[in-house]
Design a protein that fits this description.
mainly alpha, Four Helix Bundle (Hemerythrin (Met), subunit A)
Amino acid sequence: MKGPVDLVFYVLAAVTVGSAILVATLPNIIYAAVALLFAFFGVAGLYILVSADFLAATQVLVYVGGILVLIMFAVFLSSRISSVELSNPVHFRLPAAAICLALFGVLAYTAVSPAFIPKPQVTYQPTTAEIGELLMTRYLLPFEVASVLLLAALIGAALLSRPDRPDIPRPDMEEP
């Protein structure tokens, strides 16, 4: 008899894989973004099941809170994107769904094979304290270098995308 943790795993795995298949096959970008939301939450739930609470919180904050909201704002605020239907014909969707289902089958078989069946876990142990301590002690310099590099990339992207650059012609400023 499977325990409740196994049932939760199978439900989360089904939600994640089903949502990912919908993202790949839905022709409407709004519906695909909503399916992506469920896929992200499913992955966060799977992280919680393997005692990776920091990764789960990061998944929710960064991907659900940042990336998905950014995609939705880009879709809703851009008149060109919201009025266009994606060209995702059936002859592309069916192979994509078949590949996703085949990969799901391989992963499901691997998950239940004897070599990968985990031994009973003792208790849930949070990882955030250990990760926080490592980020502020042993890995402080690489963490700060990465943050400065990301800040420089952000500043460079902001400078490159400025509309008032004289070397980039703007279509609305051209004379007839």
